[in-house]
Design brief:
Layout: E1 12-16, H1 21-32, E2 36-41, H2 44-57, E3 61-66, H3 72-83, E4 91-94, H4 110-136, E5 142-146, H5 159-178, E6 185-191, E7 194-195, H6 198-202, H7 207-213, E8 220-221, H8 222-234, E9 243-246, E10 251-253, E11 256-257
Parallel strand pairs: 1-2, 1-4, 2-3, 4-5, 5-6, 6-9, 7-8
Antiparallel strand pairs: 10-11
Helix pairs in contact: 1-2, 1-8, 4-5
The structure holds NADPH dihydro-nicotinamide-adenine-dinucleotide phosphate and 2-hydroxyethylsulfonic acid.
């Protein structure tokens, strides 16, 4: 007999990096399914806008707080306040992340490497460690990490970002093994080029450089990625999508991009 898709109504879903891009769109996708949302990011005003829209879209409830995954104190406060709201988490989406700069190692900035590693690797592990006890209380806990094509295929001038996403892939694989037998599903969703605030962050607000990334290309949208995250979470409890690589048709590899004039 075919098991039916998992219902997300009233399920507790935590999304990190929910103030823009994939995180904000994923909040909306889960809101439309009637989930109880728990949202975190550093920019509180943007986060509150997403929270208001998610309530309008049908979320059962929305709780949002300032969260900096790089800062142990911020994570501790966030988790302690979250635990006063719920004892269980059904879905954790480790989405908070960023790239900074695009330069050969010889010319690159160490402060960028530190911020990427602290956010994309240590922050993800910190959130995961603190959420596992709550995921274990769910009847079908689901842990979804956002990786990247960059974690699978290295590209020039992206060494530290690629390394951080390669680390995410290996962390996800280790967690899949560690949590086997708990009923918790562990997935990595690894998108290629997507148009969000990602490139504006990478190039520190340089609009021209950001626009050049997407010039003549039809990239993924935040909604494409959000729908994929939702689909993974909706699989029946006995189905785990271990790894999912999601690329724009125009992009066959990081630098193999078809551009129209
Ligand atoms: P955005 O810049 O639009 O979103 C990134 C989110 O991460 C923001 O909400 C930001 O919120 C949050 N964030 C960054 N640093 C921290 C931090 N220290 N603590 C908490 N939240 C943080 O980019 P995307 O939506 O594209 O990126 C989301 C994820 O997807 C990232 O992990 C990225 O590496 C990955 N990715 C992106 C791709 C792309 O081409 N766009 C492709 C493949 C993967 P705030 O600034 O408010 O804290
Ligand atoms: C973001 C995709 O190719 O810019 O993870 O690194 S890429």
């Amino acid at each position: 007999m075919q098991a039916s898709p998992r219902k997300l109504r009233n399920q507790c879903v935590l999304i990190t990096g929910a103030s823009s891009g994939f995180g904000a769109s994923t909040a909306m996708a889960f809101a439309r399914e009637g989930a109880k949302l728990f949202l975190g990011a550093r920019r509180s005003s943007k986060l509150h806008e997403v929270a208001d829209l998610a309530l309008e879209a049908g979320a059962a409830s929305v709780w949002s707080r300032n969260l900096d995954v790089r800062d142990p104190n911020s994570v501790e406060t966030f988790m302690s306040e979250l635990k006063s709201q719920t004892e269980t988490l059904d879905v954790l989406i480790n989405n908070a992340g960023l790239a900074l700069g695009l330069a050969p190692v010889e010319e690159d900035e160490e402060r960028y490497w530190i911020q990427m590693m602290e956010t994309n690797v240590i922050g993800l592990m910190r959130m995961t460690r603190d959420c596992i006890p709550l995921l274990k209380k769910s009847s079908a806990g689901t842990l979804i990490n956002i990786g990247s094509i960059a974690g699978r295929v290295a590209y020039e001038k992206g060494a530290a970002y690629c390394a951080s996403k390669a680390a995410e892939l290996q962390i996800t694989k280790a967690l899949r093994l560690e949590l086997n037998g708990t009923g918790i599903r562990v997935s990595t969703i690894d998108p290629g080029m997507a148009k969000t605030e990602f490139s504006m962050v990478r190039f520190e607000g340089d609009q021209q450089k950001s626009d050049d990334v997407y010039r003549g290309v039809y990239p993924l949208t935040a909604e494409d990625v959000a729908e994929t995250i939702l689909w993974v979470a909706q699989r029946p409890a006995h189905v785990c999508v271990d790894e999912l690589l999601l690329m724009p048709t125009d992009q066959a590899a990081p630098y193999k991009v078809h551009r129209r004039n």
